[in-house]
Amino acid sequence: MIQKRLGLCVLLGFLIFSVGCARLLNIGTTEPSDEIYEKDIVTNQAISQPAPVVQDDNLLQQQQIQIQRLRSALEKKEMTIQEYKKELEIVTLKVKEGAANQGLQASAAQLPPGAKPGECYARVYISPKYKTISKRIMVQPASEEVKIIPAKYEWAEKQVMIDEASVEYKEIPAVYKWVTEKILVKEAHTIWKKGRGNIEKIDNATGEVMCMVHVPPTYKTVKKRIMVSPARIEEINKPAKYKTIKYKKMVQPPKKNVVPVPAQYKTITKKVKVAEGKMIWQRTMCETNIDRNVVLKIQQFLRKDRYNPGPVDGILGPQTRRALKSFQRDKGLAIGSITYETLKYMKIQVDKKK
């Protein structure tokens, strides 16, 4: 809330300052431009027509009056800006005072209650608290392992057909032979033949004797080719042909063997935060109640516990502070000051009179 008020005041002052500068620039740019314009006219007239000396004096006086007027306006603007700055400073100061008062009130509300005169307290940081827990976690879920058992084979013999049974047709030609045969050329017959008898032939017209004669048949021996057996188609059946071969015979087929694999677990340990880190008030040693002897005992304890505090001289230097801070962090103690909690842990007695 305080930061918002301060920001608004700064923004208001900046706006006021910007308006004042803008007005000043308007005065400085508008009026001199008119003056320059008039001066240019006068100069042009002076070049074209020579003017008397009296006119030059009047013009100079007018210019001086104009300059004086501009200076007065500029001084007024500067005074206005200074007033704005003072108002801005006053507002800023009030805002800061209000913020400081609120901060003091808040700090007072957070101060440790029940403090006694002579006791010192400091806001120290309490590291987060952790605890170690064991947890059984699954690293591999349950599954099944499949094993394939291959098939078993052995050698065996079998006959395989290499040529199928078939029917072949064969053409058998006709068979011939030569034979002799007596054939009848002319059958037996009778003919009239002239003959001789008791009667004599007297002339050509008479006395001719004719006898009927039996003529036996006439035969002729010839040689001819005769067919013994006719041509034919003979059917020949050809049986199938086989061959004995060796082959691998499966005596046991392949099979699948499923083996269950149980889940695998492991136990892990991890640190779990049980309390967040926080800032608290704790009673501590300060310049009013600490002495060289206490610091010397702290340095001796740190060196014995293998923390390097630097020279063991009773002076609370930067190296001793770093070693003490590391010790407090490692032991889970409040970090940031020489608290009574730390002194109690180190078993260091503090003089109660101090």
TrEMBL record:
It comes from the Bacteria. InterPro entries: Peptidoglycan-bd-like (IPR002477), PGBD-like_sf (IPR036365), PGBDSf (IPR036366). Pfam families: PG_binding_1. Keywords: Coiled coil. Residues 294-344 form the Peptidoglycan binding-like domain. Residues 60-94 form a coiled coil. This is Peptidoglycan-binding protein.
